[in-house]
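Field notebook, page 584. I keep forgetting to write these up properly, so this time I am using the form the group agreed on. The chain and the ligand, adenosine monophosphate, are recorded exactly as supplied. Prediction of the bound pose follows.
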Amino acid sequence: MKYAAVVESYEKLEAHTGRLAITETLAGLLKETPKEELPMLVYLTQGKLRPDYEGVELGIAEKYALRVLQVASGKPAEHVRKAYVESGDIGTAAQRLLGEGRQGALTSDSLTLKRVYDTFFVIAKTSGEGSIESKLKELASLIADATAEEAKYILRTAMGELRLGVADYTILDACAVALLGGKGHRKVLERAYNVSSDLGHVVELAAEKGLDGVKNIHVQVGKPIRPMLAERLPTAQGILDKMGGDVVMEYKLDGERAQIHKDGDKVQIFSRRLELITPTYPDVVEYTKKYVTSKKVILEGEVVAVNVETGEYLPFQELMHRRRKHGIAEMMKQYPVAVNFFDVMFSDGEDFTGKPYTQRRAELERIVKQNEFARLVPAQRTKSAEEIERYMEEAITQGGEGLMVKDPKAAYTAGARGFGWIKLKREYRSELTDTIDLVIVGAIHGRGRRAGVYGAYLLAAYDPRKDNFPTITKIGTGFSDEDLQAIPKLLKPYESEVKPPNVESILVPDVWYRPKIVIETIASEITLSPIYPAGLDSVRKGSGLALRFPKFTGKIRDEKGPDDATTVKEIVEMYRTQNKKIRE
Ligand code: AMP
């Protein structure tokens, strides 16, 4: 197949705006292309060389593309740069410069689709010392043999700026028309694409083996599945109505989505965009090997930064430190994560994508040996809108973003946004600037490095009206090793076998303390919460207030007595101001 023929179709695609015309042109091009060259054509048309998950990147930087163009056109660097800036695109600049006085080849007998693709592939795979020079040599040799029109698309492709306006779904439509005899077969193609994420392979099979070949593409460990996506509805009742009155609520955690493929000892992790992110999370690889019992399995989970000693979820910003190429081992220690599984698509030889949520969750429960590093996302079944509201508050207090509500009957619909999952987020988020002084009323045993000392303290505000101390948060973050030694000593005299009568709490800590020691805290915000009684009913019936992502500032306020702690009324005020600020 001549590359000129491909370029001719690309020119037409660029000129069309209607989807129908685009599909027809593409279908024509697919028909014209020899079967064995179809994958190359499809990848190139997507602006890639291989499916994303293989991580084969072309990416020639702008300055190098300009240099190649300068050599090919024989024009001064300034001239080339000017043409580029004026046209705003490397392709148009190339077409102009090489067209002027016919600098480019007149015809391009030697330029085939295969040669262009193979050269790009070599460029992508060249690395190490001196690789830039050899990449540029390869690219220059293509341009030297290219007509002005061909050079336009070659350079655009090289820079990752093809922009033909052809969506993956349009390629599927064109494939149905050109290779399977009608648009009616688009659904089958779509399914094959959604479970394999490899468009070139799907089109090739359609050409070689027809409909049966495409139907034979199944979920396979090692090939990422295009992720199921959620719809959004504003109210709990709306979600219940949509799902027929019976739903499962899951915490919507704020981390990074990970699609994890395990085949014996081999574990691969794909991002939401299906790029390989295995090197970022060696810990998640270990946890999957150790704690997932199924030998061949595809799972999905949210990777979240955690406080190892308390098990608390930490804000998304903490996880961001892990997104880097170097020094991973160090970051792994500083920013530990837990993987929170929420789905399973394949397990021990069985495809689970067609099975209802309840069966998939049951399988997850069967195959994950849960501990603090490998957990299942908290979930609860309900028929009540009120319970959804409460669970949402709980999720937010615990560091989640809101809820993901799931239809217990729904299958895993790969690659599609649908009402099988509906997200319910609260509409605001803010940063609290004031510090809050709170009284320690309890302690929870630590684990990991904090085994033997307390992992978290239960804190209360002061309510002058009732002269008592309603709890408002647990806190495990911000304590230095010295703090962890010093604070228990301070508290020791106030230990109590029973809940002190002037403390109000739903949570029961491992140890109670009579309210005495005051510490200073900061938090990301104040939220409604069903598990803390501070400010109960003052904003919403049945809900109290809680701190989200609380942190010890390092200050023990020994100049303050417990009744100098921040009052419930002040906290209700802070909650209202915070929300007013958000609305403004
Ligand atoms: P959004 O990005 O707002 O459309 O929300 C979807 C994302 O929420 C997914 O891609 C996951 O990364 C994340 N997520 C967190 N918890 C869950 C959960 N329990 N179920 C599904 N997705 C979740």
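OBSERVATIONS:
- The two ends are 60 Å apart (CA to CA).
- The pocket of adenosine monophosphate is lined by residues 230, 250, 252-253, 257, 272, 302, 342, 377, 404, 423 (CB under 6 Å).
FOLLOW-UP: compare against the apo run.
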